[in-house]
Amino acid sequence: MESVGFKEWAIVCEALGRGEQTVIVRKGGIAEGRDGFSFRYREFFLFPTWFHEQADKVRKIDVDLPAPNADKIDIGYFARLESSHVIPSWPMAEALKPFHILQQNVVRERFEYDQAPGLHVAFVRIFRVRPTWTIVNEKKYGGCRSWVDLPELPGDLRYDPVLSDNEYTTRYDEFAKLIGSVDMSSP
Q1: What integer is the mean pLDDT of 123-145?
Q2: CA distance 45 to 141
Q3: CA 4 to CA 79: how far, in whole Å?
Q4: Tens of pLDDT along 97-127?
Q5: Which among 30, 87, 19, 157 is positioned nearest to 7, based on CA atoms?
Q6: How far is it, in rounded angstroms, from Cα 100 to Cα 57?
Q7: Residue 53 — pLDDT band, cuts 50, 70, 90?
Q8: Cβ(9)–Cβ(103) under 8 Å?
Q9: pLDDT tens, residue by residue, 71-102
């Protein structure tokens, strides 16, 4: 297992960790490099951030988030990438609403960002990390990029699935059916 973190708003990390969200919707960070954003890893830890995060950008905010701590980062969730797609059409991006907590105007903003409309979407299976893995917050974790290298993994971590196998399979099947049913050819 690689020790890599995926930077995401803390409120979205919690929604994923509570089973309220099953996809990650991403355009990419400013510092993604020449090739742009991609879901480069099949397994990764969710690295919660408060950078650019605003509660009015999500539809559900019934989560009590701890205040950001400048000295440490608590890693509470691990993700396994099950399926990823580039979504080139707005109707498809709009149809993903049941799978995430973002406001539609935020999804639209991400979809239209830069010269090529579209989104990267990943269906993920989330696992609760026990005990929570606390790391020292370092300058190397800053910036507008999606992926960060984390320290060596502690040997005592356990991974408990957030959704039961049946619930996970039901949601994945709904997602796969949706992906196959919408014309993704036109923006």
Answers
A1: 92
A2: 13
A3: 11
A4: 999 999 999 999 989 887 778 899 999 999 9
A5: 30
A6: 12
A7: low
A8: no
A9: 999 999 999 999 999 898 999 999 999 999 99
3-state secondary structure the chain: CCCEEEEEEHHHHHHHHCCCCCEEEECCCCCCCCCCCCCCCCEEEEEEECCCCCHHHECCCCCCCCCCCCCEEEEEEEEEEEEEEEECCHHHHHHCHHHCCECHHHHHHHHHCCCCCCEEEEEEEEEEEEEEEEEECCHHHCCCCCEEECCCCCCCCEEEECCCHHHHHHHHHHHHHHHHHCCCCCC
pLDDT at residue 184 in the model: 47
Q: Would you say 137 and 69 are in contact if contact means Cβ atoms under 8 Å apart?
A: yes
Query: Tokens 């742009």, residue?
Result: 36
Residue 186 banded pLDDT, cuts 50, 70, 90 = very low
Are residues 24 and 124 in contact, defined by beta-carbon separation less than 8 angstroms? yes
> Tokens at residue 125, please?
């299976």
pTM value is 0.89
Q: How far apart are CA 130 and CA 63, in angstroms?
A: 20
